[in-house]
Design brief:
Two copies of one chain form a homodimer.
Chain A (H helix, E strand, L loop, with lengths): L13 H6 L3 H7 L7 E4 L7 E6 L4 E6 L3 E2 L3 E5 L4 H15 L7 E5 L4 E4 L6 E2 H6 L7 H15 L7 H11 L3 H10 L19 H8 L2 H15 L4 E3 L8 E3 L4 E3 L6 E3 L1 H18 L10 H28 L17 H32 L5 H4 L4 H21 L6 H13 L4
Helix pairs in contact in A: 5-11, 9-12, 10-11, 10-12, 10-14, 12-14, 14-15
């Protein structure tokens, strides 16, 4: 276990000197560190991120800081998140090859991961705000979800390995705490770090905090999140954790990785597409976004359909773990038994996925960590109007998740929230 | 972590010499080990158990063996189960004081726990086979379940501690594997270690193995067992893990301890009382057991009622964990919100508890590890008649667990299975 006692934060000037001897960087960037150019491009929330470029090529150097960068050293955050990110990246790379950045080097003591610089990729969230309709993301993300989540679970993995890995990631307490508090609890009471578009949303905030069914549902979801380590999650799987070009999709930043419920990554991702949907009318100044809205609702349906299809494929081809064993079904000639079990497993994922999507929409509007989809809408009245619709859909999903039949039905409701003022 | 490289099994002759210098034993048994008398009384399944007696008093010396004693060294079993048993005992002692044997000494490397010799206590299962109606067990066991299970969960414990402890116990893989295989899978296919009363039960066995709904239910329960580490379980909580006098109840042998679903220990225990109920007619040669049967059904109801009541009491007084936080309910003046959440939590425990009870009844009759309640019925026709009723109730509970309203209803069904031949 790294001690971090010699940890020193990098800066653009010190980086070539400190890392100039590493073959991993010399081979990819250039053998003379004096020829390297270094820029810090961290988005400012948690970590340092450097792009290192030179005559041979480029690389990303990501270093954790012992506190939340955005807030400062009053909010300490363990350097060990870098360890969890590294180990999550290696597992994701094995489970869905080519979907995460290639790792060149890991320095545990300095909390540094050196990896592939993705270019000309941009953050998916930014692309969606700009109105780009990317053709490949739904397929790529649906497959990534099914492959990483299925292959990390007792449906597939040797349970001895899963239990050991679960123990390894159980120490990612600080980042779990962020999710546990910021996603499931803070939005539903007057927590210190909350903020929202005020005064426009004040009435709605009061209503949600007085909503008993919603609060019980959110806490039940927290219970499921904290006590259902089915598989290794990405843990922070929103559109800001995806980088894209028209032809490539990559998933980054799994430092929240943790053993949790399969439904969590799926629900969190879909929620971010619904929020993108409701934010489009805040970005229509230059051009109408009718086609973009239709695209986003289709992406949601296609991600889930791809996830379901691939999950079923893996169920039939790689179900080698301790759960729903073939000995009990196929090996007894009972293929329908295996299908019945698959339907049960997918039904449970479906129900919980909708719940996680619901609370994710709330916390991005009412909690600490907002998202750019809404934040970049400068007019607060317009922003609040968009946010309000997402809050309403979120409440609907979190509370009614056991009774909802299909995404088509949810998307139809989203369209009515978008176009009718009666809700 | 112990290495076990110097492990040597004790025997009655070597014990005084090897352990004679330990203050823990000298103080309690006598300062001169030559005056000690040592008998080995292990029930023959897994471990060595010695009673050590001397002029001052007595003690139990329990030592693990690196294999399953019953089967021999062809079935290795890690010595580390002693480490898990010791740590489980210390946690149980803190969570429900006085209910587990007092620990005098733990030797990790030799896999030895030295503890209180409970006398004149006998194994509860034996007392029930003899037809003893013990007045205190229902209350004591209901309280023990509620206190250990609630206080070990995120409802109460600091989640950082629970996550660290979960990681510690995650290595108890071999004993979890026994539960995962023997309880949830083996009874439902032609597994090598299975045995049952044959040919009397052959038809029923074939019927259960062809029962798709049952197999899917059993596997769903396995899924819940393996992926819901809500709290530290005893893990093997049957009537053979309880020692009693008329006035005292003690819980022993938590070497299967593991973080799992709250419902597991509860369901497993109740199943053993239903099995005792159905076994009574096999022990009626000398005297009718009408009163004993009524007593057992009442014990089941009283354990559950005590568990529910104490769980609710702790919910109101010790709900200091990350789940269903007061900030969202009581602190906002919403006491009914906390009650709604309590009902939801208890409802989930109820449903899963019934399922675990169902499969436990199957595996004790169809799997490897049978229980003395039925095994001591020598006439195979009579034994099979008793077992058949338990198998039927088990199937009913495992498959219909979401639709069953009360224990009264289940007990009524048990009575009909006992007295009517039409089922």
């Amino acid at each position: 276990m790294p001690s971090y006692q010699d940890f020193i934060a990098l800066n653009p000037n010190s980086l070539p000197e400190r890392l100039g001897a590493l073959p991993a960087l010399r081979e990819r960037v250039g053998s003379d560190p004096r020829t390297w150019s270094v820029r810090e491009v961290g988005d400012g929330n948690l970590n340092l991120v450097f792009i290192v470029e030179g005559p041979q090529g480029s690389a990303i150097v990501k270093q954790a800081l012992p506190y939340v960068r955005l807030v400062g050293d009053s909010w300490p955050l363990p350097l060990k998140r870098s360890f969890f990110e590294y180990h999550a990246l290696t597992r994701q790379a094995a489970r869905d090859p080519g979907m995460v950045p290639q790792i060149y080097h890991f320095d545990a003591e300095q909390a540094i991961i050196i990896m592939e610089f993705l270019s000309p990729h941009i953050i998916l969230r930014r692309a969606l705000i700009e109105g780009q309709e990317l053709p490949k993301i739904a397929k790529d993300l649906g497959l990534f979800l099914a492959r990483t989540l299925f292959r990390g679970s007792d449906l597939c993995l040797d349970t001895k390995l899963r239990k050991a890995d679960l123990a390894l990631f159980a120490d990612n307490v600080a980042l779990c705490d962020i999710t546990e508090s910021l996603v499931f609890s803070d939005p539903y009471y007057d927590a210190k770090l909350n903020r929202h578009t005020t005064p426009q949303l004040d009435g709605m905030v009061a209503e949600l905090r007085a909503d008993r069914d919603l609060k019980v549902a959110a806490q039940r979801l927290k219970h499921i999140f904290a006590a259902t380590p089915e598989t290794l999650l990405h843990g922070d799987f929103h559109t800001g954790s995806v980088m894209v070009t028209a032809s490539e999709t990559r998933v980054i930043d799994p430092e929240f990785a943790f053993y949790g419920p399969i439904a969590f990554d799926v629900g969190m991702l879909l929620a971010n597409f619904w929020m993108s949907y409701f934010s489009q009318s805040g970005h229509e100044a230059n051009a109408k976004r009718h086609s973009m809205r239709a695209y986003l609702l289709n992406v949601i349906i296609e991600i889930w359909q791809t996830f379901r299809d691939e999950f079923a494929t893996l169920w039939h081809s790689e179900r080698n773990g301790i759960l729903y064993q073939r000995q009990l079904f196929e090996d007894q000639g009972d293929r329908l038994g295996a299908e019945q079990a698959l339907d049960l497993v997918l039904q449970n994922i479906w129900v919980d996925m909708l719940g996680f999507a619901g609370v994710e929409m709330h916390r991005r509007i009412l909690g600490l960590a907002h998202n750019a989809d809404f934040e970049t809408i400068e007019n607060p009245d317009l922003r609040a109007k968009c946010e309000m619709k997402a809050l309403k859909l979120g409440r609907h999903l979190a509370v009614n998740r056991s009774h909802i039949h299909s995404l088509q039905e949810i998307n139809k409701l989203a369209q009515r929230l978008e176009t009718e003022s009666v809700f």
